User: What shape does this take?
Amino acid sequence: QVQLVESGGGLVQTGDSLRLSCVFYGRTFSSYVMAWFRQAPGKEREVVAVITSGGSTYDSDSVKGRFTISRDNLMNMVYLQMNSLKPEDTAVYYCAAKHISSSDYEYWGQGTRVTVSP
Assistant: This one.
C-alpha cells in the first residue's frame, strides 16, 4: 500500500513563494507517476502539475511559468515549487500517485492548505 504525506502549505501574501513536499511510502517510487492537484473552495479538484517516473513534466496553463514540479527518486519525494503566488492559487493541494501501468490516480495524500492573501 502507498502512503503519501504532504507538507509545506501556509498563509502567504501575493507574490510570495512556497514549496510543497510530499513523501511517498510503501512501494517502488520510481514506478509511479506523481502529480499535484488542488481544490479551491466551491470548485472541482484540478490537476496542477504532473511528473513521470522519468522526469517529464506537465504544468496546467494556470500555473505555467510560476510553479515547478520535481521529484527525488532516491529520497522518494515530490515537490511543488510555487512562485509569484496569486489569491486564485488559494486551495487545498493534494499529492497523488499512480502506477505507470494505471490510468487513474490510485493514491492521495491528506492535503495541505495554501492561502494567498491579496
